[in-house]
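An example makes the point: we let one protein speak, the chain in one-letter code, the fold tokenised, and here it is:
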Amino acid sequence: MNTKIATAGNAGPKVRSDCEITLEIRQKGGIVVDLRSKVKALYGESIQTLCREVLDFYRIRNAFISIEDSGALPFVITARLEAAIRKITAADSEFLPQMLKENLYGTATDRTRFSRLYLPGNNPGLMINAGLHSANGIILDLEDSVASDKKDEARLLVRNALRQIDFKGAERMVRINQGETGLMDLQCVIPHNVNIVLIPKCETSDQIKQVEEWINEIRRRMKIKNRVLLMPIVESAAGVENCYTIARASKDIVSNGLHPSQADTGNKSGLCTR
């Protein structure tokens, strides 16, 4: 791209635990950080050090960074800065925060899934304490809750959240987008111990098989051993018509309800319907 200026993140009076970063890559002048934050006196130096670390990782030596901070944690700041960098450079390497050891757990097909908490994938303020609500599953949503021009930013934020937020044992779920955008979602999040991928607007078994193929290719390439389960979401008459073949499209499909031993009624197709 010709432009050398990009903005990522969110700012405003109602924004919490986020930041808006504007990055301008220059020809000279070194790194200059303009930080506006209520916690600047306490954390200003560490925020600037973190930004310099990210820029050094991407070999950016001259830049002006403007940060409007609303209490963003380090994993949010690095995701926002990485998003801005990717908008104006050809960089595809990832600046990854440390994976919490508390998040290195798998799941099982017969696990109880009575309660699930949907969280917008571009709103870190709703993610940080999500594990305290004791939901069976926490869903970081990259589809309907994220504006089309924020998809790339949200993808990086969700990736970092999977590594840095303590889910308190809840199933770690991500709802992806359709088509090629969904493939980009998978490439970004599958390496970070996702337990279940939610597949929206399912109408045919071919959609399931395509997503399964993409996931398995990523797992082979990244040497990922943890199993990734699939939860199709039926949202149309065509999907209802084909729900039997959708439910049988993969051995990794799971339902959105109770453990089989607990459920006597309700949806037994193995699908999530809306």
Notes: DSSP finds eight helices and ten strands in the chain. The chain has two domains: 5-88, 101-273. The helical segments are 40-57, 74-88, 124-127, 151-164, 179-189, 205-222, 237-241, 243-247. Residues 5-88 form a domain with the Ribosomal Protein S5; domain 2 fold (CATH 3.30.230.10).
